[in-house]
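OmpW family protein (Anaeromyxobacter dehalogenans), 208 aa
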Amino acid sequence: MKRMLLVMALAVAMAPVAKAQEPTPESGLMVRLRALSLRPADRSDAIPALGVPKDAITVSDKVIPEVDLSWFFNRYLAAELILTYPQEHDVKLSGTKIGTFSHLPPTLTVQGHLPLGRVKPYLGAGVNLTLVTDTSLSVPGVGKLELEDYSFGLAAQAGLDVRVTGRWYVNADVKYVTIRSDVKAGGTKVSEVRVDPWLIGGGVGYRF
């Protein structure tokens, strides 16, 4: 009887440790917090009438925060919603600042995961909707420039989750997103800007 009571006491004492060492679930929600370096491609059409050469319109790089919510259907398949808050960028024409605009770029991807113990690489593809707001652009001799209110494009990503302990992970992620907008002056299209940024990030994640 004493031995049985001792075993039961040890089992009760070790239960929290055993629970902490349980593997993370194969389905359910994962939340990640990342810092992203946004690096636009800076491609734009020439504007012959204004003497503006190709790729003269550029958008500033920026480091932004990101929160993403990933729902795992099983250990191999997940859907990820990528969120941030509106980001303001400087716009330059041939190196001279001509104004700013803000954008909000929610992105939804479907991911394939390859669980290799603690290391879990993945690939993803999906869609992006970029909402453009607070555009304030002006060129001397031309006047105010306008951008489209939204851009709908594709997204691709590759990343890696590494389980540190329990349900905590560290993450590295690279995304490419197509973001494009017509540039108009007085309602007439004068150019097209292809922002098409690379998003290079890292952070932490928690699996519920």
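The longest helix spans residues 2-20. The helical segments are 2-20. ok done for today
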